[in-house]
Design goal:
140 residues; mainly alpha; two-stranded antiparallel ribbon; 2 strands
């Protein structure tokens, strides 16, 4: 938050590791608490963005995870999540900002590589080696 407030970068990547670390460590109660903390941090980040005169009403926030987790009964459950199974390939994406539809759930199959493709489209820069596709269904 301090960097966002003082430097106002145009593009920022923030990685909140606590959920993933506790999942892989098989610390279920810590994992659940990390989810709550991460949700709270995401809320506070969005509230900051909306209260800052440089960012308010002109900033996009993507919130996602790097992989899903195994379904119950697959291998050792959530501990070794992150392979190519269906559960691990299922992730969530929350996209907030003035360019996006509000309150719309989109159930189109996209991949993580589609996020940078969408960002490059929004910021009008080329990514000639990118393989992702723009998530057009998000836009108004």
């Amino acid at each position: 938050m301090e960097i966002l407030q003082s430097k106002h970068p145009k593009l920022t990547l923030i990685n909140l590791l606590e959920v993933d670390v506790n999942g892989h460590a098989n610390l279920w109660s810590n994992y659940l608490e990390a989810i709550r903390k991460t949700d709270d941090k995401a809320r506070k980040l969005w509230e900051f963005i909306q209260s800052d005169s440089v960012y308010a009403n002109k900033t996009t926030l993507f919130i996602t995870n790097d992989h899903g987790r195994h379904s119950k009964g697959r291998r050792d459950g959530f501990i070794s999540h992150g392979d190519n199974c269906t559960g691990c390939r299922s992730i969530y994406l929350v996209a907030l900002g003035p360019d996006f539809k509000v309150g719309k759930e989109i159930n189109v199959g996209y991949d993580l590589i589609d996020i940078p493709a969408t960002i490059s489209e929004m910021l009008h820069f080329d990514m000639p080696t990118a393989r992702g596709k723009v998530m057009t269904e998000l836009f108004r």
